[in-house]
Amino acid sequence: MTTVLVIGAAGKTGRAVTAALTSRGVDVRAAVRSARRAETAYAVGARSISVVDLETGSGLDEAVAGADAVYHLAPNVHRDEVGIADRVAGAAARAGLSRFVFHSVLHPDDPSMPHHLRKAAAEKVVRTHLPGATVLRPAAYHQNLVDAALAGRITVPYSLDSPFTNVDLADVAEVAATVLTRPGHEGVTYDLAGPEVLSVRDQAHVASDVLGRPVEAVRVEIDEWVAGPGASLTAQARDDLLAMFASYDRGGLVGDSSTLRRLLGHEPRTWAQALEPA
Ligand SMILES: NC(=O)c1ccc[n+]([C@@H]2O[C@H](COP(=O)([O-])OP(=O)(O)OC[C@H]3O[C@@H](n4cnc5c(N)ncnc54)[C@H](OP(=O)(O)O)[C@@H]3O)[C@@H](O)[C@H]2O)c1
């Protein structure tokens, strides 16, 4: 049986990738920051856990030992994303693993977003250790806004009319499982953008129709966001997100969905489908 080490397995993306792999019968070893997160990983099908510290590299060599492949994702807007990529890909290379998938982001070369540029640098570091690594570049997930839509109010600190081609996290996870378990994806980079161009205002309209109750789209001022959701963040994470909001305000985040459709072999999930009960 194939064993895949999933980094960040207890997080939002890691849980989705773990669930997609285990539904295909893959043995997932979940890399978690603390043993306290083990239950979260076991709940989505992981068979074992490895405690790793991505900031120091502690536990990584033990975690990759005996694995056949690694799925690497970095904690969101982490200041040392490039160092983390170096440590994880370095451990995989030392262990002789050739199958390695890095979870990047759509348009990593966009100079207006420092955390995107760190993803671009991390991609290069990964490929230095492992030239055959596969890179996935997902758009923003539908799931970022699902809870807000279900609660009847989507609030964002950028234009309600900026265009987005959001992607369903389940589709991203399905592609992750495919490239981790099937041949033919070595050394390739894939953009994963969703099938529709929708603004937040459009998303609220669709949500109202699908849910059969009003869903409003509200733009909050940046100061309000800084004093609210942004208040608990580090200055660096807050600045990264403020740069992202400014970029979203100017032009949203849009990509081409044809690669996702081809890799899935079916239509990508729409925003309306993301709102339907599982
Ligand atoms: N959200 C989107 O729309 C989107 C789109 C494209 C790409 N991405 C990228 O996807 C990646 C994952 O995002 P996410 O929202 O799934 O992140 P997340 O939920 O925050 O998950 C990150 C995981 O990493 C773990 N972690 C944090 N620091 C660690 C450390 N020092 N050592 C070991 N583990 C550590 C966290 O552990 P705990 O569970 O203990 O906190 C968490 O389980 C990010 O790089 C993001 O840029 C996101």
From TrEMBL:
- Extract the signal peptide range: none
| Family annotation (Gene3D superfamilies) | NAD(P)-binding Rossmann-like Domain, UDP-galactose 4-epimerase, domain 1
Q: Which InterPro entries match?
A: Ergot_Alk_Oxidoreductase (IPR051604), NAD(P)-bd_dom_sf (IPR036291), NmrA-like (IPR008030)
**Domain NmrA-like, which positions?**
3-247
Name of this chain's protein:
NmrA-like domain-containing protein
The organism named in the record is Terrabacter tumescens
